[in-house]
Amino acid sequence: MKKVLLTAVAVVLAGAGLYADKRFVMLDKVVAVVGNSSIMYSEVEQTAKQLVEARRAEGYTSDRDPKSEALEQLMMQKLLYNQALIDSVDVSTGDIVQRVEMQVQNMTAEAGSVTELERKSHMPIYHIRELVRRQVEEQAYAQAMQQDVISKVKVVPGEVERFYNTTTKEDLPIIAEQYMYAHITKYPKGMEAAKRRTRERLLDMRERIVTGKAQFSTLARMYSVDGAAIRGGELEPTTLNGWVKPFADAVEELKPGQVSEVVETQFGLHIIQMIDKRGNLYHCRHIVLRPTYTSDEIIAPLLELDSIANLIRKDSLTFEAAALAHSDDKHSKQNGGIVTNHDLLEHYSAFDAKLTATKFLKEDFGVGGGKSIDDYNTLRYMSKGDVSTAFRTSDMNGNEMCKIIKLVDVIPAHTATLDEDYLRLEQIALQDKQQKVFQQWLDSKIETMYVYISPEFRTGEFVNKSWVKKDMDKKVM
Question: What residue ranges define each of the domains in the chain, with the CATH number in brackets?
Answer without folding.
Answer: 5-154+428-475 (1.10.4030), 175-188+293-415 (3.10.50.40), 191-289 (3.10.50.40)
